[in-house]
Sequence to fold (65 residues):
Amino acid sequence: MSKNKETYQEAIEKLRQIVVDIESGQLEVDILSEKVKEASRLIKLCKEKLFKVDEEVKKVLDELE
Fold:
């Protein structure tokens, strides 16, 4: 699946798995670095999706007034 097409839920699940992997303490330094970079990308994606939904909800609520 394209990184841009990930759903919020998919990103959250990937983040949860990264946390589990990091907390295991068994990752090599190079892999740990990649996991942290991926987590950063996923967090940014989630924040963008949440912001977009928040704006859409505000717009709908404003239309109801």
